[in-house]
Amino acid sequence: MHLRSLLLTALLCACRRGESVNRTASDSQPSLQPPAQIADSYPSVDDARLTIGQLRLGLTEAEVRRLLGEPSSKSEPHNEEVLADPTWKLVYPDVTIDFTGSRATRISCMGQACVTPDSIRMGDSRARVERAYGPGRYDPIGESLTYFARRSDCALTFVFFSDRVGTIKLSCDQT
Question: How many Cβ atoms from other residues are within 10 Å of residue 24's Cβ?
Fold first, then answer.
């Protein structure tokens, strides 16, 4: 039995030698997360700059309500397989805040009041964002620029519509 496995492995290796190693970009899906050695080449953002107005990651529901008032809606908590705590949302007219457990883990802002500490707001050009933050990690599919935090698994993302900021997002990887 061991000899048969060895022969089968040798045969498969010999067949693979004839495969072409010239692959095009369409042969594989683009990675949304850069490899660790490449991630260091993207401009990073100090964690203290990960705010939109007075909103920041890690706020509790009570803190968000003190800042924004009563939400338009609140989702029911649901469990994700990879997370220990339930996830849920508070929705406001121009802001959606996702919570994991009791803390804000994602903030999406689409209104005129949305402004970063570097004065980037809705309608600003991609060029203005890059002047303020550097080139960032560009995602052509989602038309976005992402800036990774220096001391956490969090990020600041600008989503563009017709080359203008349409959404500003803060997020943390909770897995």
Answer: 6
The DSSP 8-state label assigned to residue 31 in this structure reads: P
Name which of 106, 55, 98, 100 is nearest 73 in CA terms.
98
Query: What are the pLDDT digits (tens) for 136-163?
Result: 999 988 899 999 999 888 999 999 999 9
pLDDT of residue 17: 39
Which of the four pLDDT bands, split at 50, 70 and 90, describes residue 11? Answer: very low
CA separation for the pair 121, 95 (Å, rounded): 13
- Domain boundaries of the chain, sorted by first residue: 35-172
Query: Which secondary structure element, helix H or strand E, spans residue 166, and what is its range?
Result: strand 164-172
Phi, psi of 133 (to 5 degrees): -120, -15
Per-residue pLDDT at 61 exceeds 90: yes
By CB neighbour count within 10 A (0-12 exposed, 13-18 middle, 19+ buried), where does 55 fall? buried
Q: What is the chain's length? A: 175
CA neighbor of 156 nearest in space, from 101, 114, 127 = 114
Task: Please list, residue by residue across 145-170, b when 16 or more beta carbons sit within 10 angstroms of its beta carbon and e when fewer do.
Answer: bbbbbeeeebbbbbbbeeeebebbbb
User: For a pLDDT cut of 90, what percent of the chain falls above it?
Assistant: 54
Choose which CATH entry (3.40.50.300, 3.40.33.10, 3.40.1010.10, 3.60.15.10) describes domain 35-172: 3.40.33.10
